[in-house]
Design goal:
Shape: globular
Number of strands: 15
Order of helices and strands: HHHHHEEEEEEHEEHEEHEHHEEHEHEHHH
Strand content: 15-25%
Helix content: 25-40%
């Protein structure tokens, strides 16, 4: 597979397996797919892989279990309880979480690197927008500045309206040529499309605008291209930048009297990523798996994303404790400042002080992402790399479909229905796909509303969010589904162990297939297709 060199891509972006006997042991006690809402809610009896020879997936999955992960989740809850109810990056609660992970990995014998970096914590205090005297729904984009404008001079910047449009509004400084931003109340009205929101905002500020609005693209009927964007600029700007739906963008374009106000803060702090390597027989083919370790400021983040972090930690410790050397080198990552705009993973890829060198980039076979894998009102979602349900709004690197297939093979072999989750780039895999590294992962749902069709497959409550405590204080250990975690910790271990043996289907590098059923020979059931519209993936951290 051909990939653009990291240096060039950085300039562009920045400016098998298990046996039939095992299957019987792991079946959730149901015979039909429609009954899988009754998956076991208690984890397998705890045991350890310590000293075991991992000669098959069966051995690993017998000792990887949700009870392991829950021990780590209890520690994350403790760190939040002891530190103001949060584990947000830049707080003592996060520092304690990072120390805990790093110390366990070091004690297990892995090569640990702690990557410290500065980042900015954005807070929206208030925002408002009026058009001809009527309030308009809005919010500030993350890293927006503050300001107030009355009777704004609205200046449309290279808009391309209507279905099927190919907007590149505000992406180039030349888009502002011939437009008069010499006044003291000029508002740049821009449309989503073709480049990062931060590029649009920076160009508007440089042109002399006192404020900017970016509204959704409206190129399709997909709500993700129509509704308010929930976007992040990814870079601090000095002017207020508001976020609108497509319809309200049209409203502002036609209004004769527009006023806006935004009050925000942008505070610089320090945090870190934890990176742990398990050397393999092939040091030049690296399989990486990551999960963000931080919470939002408003809660302890035990589900989002203690669940992914704890699952990954439990698996890494079992692999490290066994009599096992992977064929491919394994790399585990716990990201900082994801909730502030995917910052830790971007630092890992692009930071000139410790980011990927070209040799390291060339060795990186794939990246697996685990962000929210035990939502209380869950579905089982797999990133839709083959775009069978959702047209991806981001590039999907070659090889990503093969990653999706491995997760789908796991669910299919266990007779558990799964669905596609939009390959949206709205989590830490964004930086990796930006430079052409194949990616995939799992997701059990955030603020989306569960439907009757989804309840029929997975149980739960129709009309409630997949995670009713998403990004709020009640995201405690009581917000974690043991049943979902028990299924997904095995799914994650299954994929990691698979790719530790061979990544040939992803990047063409031959390896050694682990003992067990080959996922290539599993009849994949296919996604449940329960999302009639919308994305199936949380909409935070949208950058373009």
């Amino acid at each position: 597979m051909i990939r653009t060199t990291l240096a060039r891509r950085a300039r562009v972006v920045l400016a098998s397996l298990f046996s039939v006997a095992l299957l019987a042991a792991l079946m959730p006690g149901v015979a039909a797919a429609q009954d899988t809402q009754h998956v076991q809610t208690e984890s397998k009896s705890p045991r350890t892989c310590n000293g075991d020879s991992l000669d098959s997936t069966k051995t690993l999955l017998q000792c990887v279990n949700a009870a392991d992960a829950f021990r780590h989740l209890k520690k994350f809850q403790q760190f939040a309880d002891e530190n103001g109810g949060t584990r947000a990056s830049g707080t003592p609660g996060y520092d304690a979480s990072a120390d805990y992970v790093a110390e366990l990995m070091e004690a297990a014998g892995l090569d640990v690197e702690r990557q410290e970096f500065e980042f900015t914590v954005f807070t929206e205090i208030s925002s408002s927008l009026t058009a001809d005297g009527a309030d308009v729904e809005t919010q500030t984009m993350s890293f927006s500045g503050s300001g107030t404008i009355d009777a704004a001079n609205v200046i449309a910047v290279d808009l391309d309206l209507g279905p099927g449009n190919s907007s590149s509004s505000g992406c180039e400084p030349t888009d502002f040529d011939g437009l008069d931003f010499s006044g003291d109340n000029d508002l740049a009205l821009m449309q989503r499309g073709a480049c990062a929101f931060g590029d649009k905002a920076v160009n508007a500020e440089a042109a002399g605008a006192e404020a900017a609005i970016i509204f959704n693209q409206g190129d399709t009927d997909d709500p993700g291209r129509q509704d308010i964007i929930n976007g992040t600029l990814g870079v601090v700007v000095g002017i207020p930048v508001l976020d609108l739906s497509y319809a309200n963008g049209l409203l502002i374009n036609d209004a004769t009297d527009v006023g806006l106000a935004a009050e925000t803060t942008n505070v610089t702090s320090t945090t870190e990523n934890i990176i742990a390597d398990m050397p393999g027989a092939n040091p030049d083919n690296v399989v990486m798996a990551g999960a963000h370790l931080d919470s939002v400021e408003d809660g302890p983040g035990v589900q989002d994303n203690g669940s992914g972090s704890a699952a990954l930690l439990g698996i890494a410790l079992e692999l490290a404790g066994a009599d096992y050397t992977p064929n491919n080198t394994l790399r585990f990552a716990w990201w900082g400042a994801e909730e502030s705009g995917l910052i830790g993973s971007n630092e890992y890829v692009f930071n000139p002080d410790f980011g990927l060198t070209d040799p390291e980039y060339d060795a990186l076979a794939l990246y697996l992402n685990f962000d929210m894998v035990a939502s209380p009102n869950y579905i089982f979602g797999v990133y839709d790399a083959d775009q069978s349900s959702f047209e991806a709004p981001v590039p999907v690197p070659e090889g990503s479909e093969a990653i999706e297939d491995v997760f789908e093979a796991y669910y299919s072999r266990r007779n558990i229905p799964y669905d596609d989750s939009e390959f949206s780039g709205r989590s830490d895999y964004q930086a990796f796909i930006d430079v052409g590294i194949p990616a995939g992962g799992l997701f059990t749902g955030a603020e989306e509303i569960k439907t009757d069709a989804q309840v029929a497959l997975w149980g739960g409550t129709a009309g409630d969010q997949f995670d009713p405590c998403y990004h709020i204080a009640c995201d405690t250990i009581d917000n974690v589904s043991r049943g979902a975690l028990n299924v997904n910790i095995d799914a994650i271990a299954y994929a990691i162990f698979n790719f530790a043996g061979t990544t040939e289907a992803v990047n063409g590098v031959a390896g050694i297939k682990p003992n067990g059923i080959d996922p290539d020979k599993v009849r994949i059931d296919g996604p449940a297709m329960t999302f009639a519209e919308g994305g199936g993936g949380h909409n935070d951290h949208v950058r373009s």
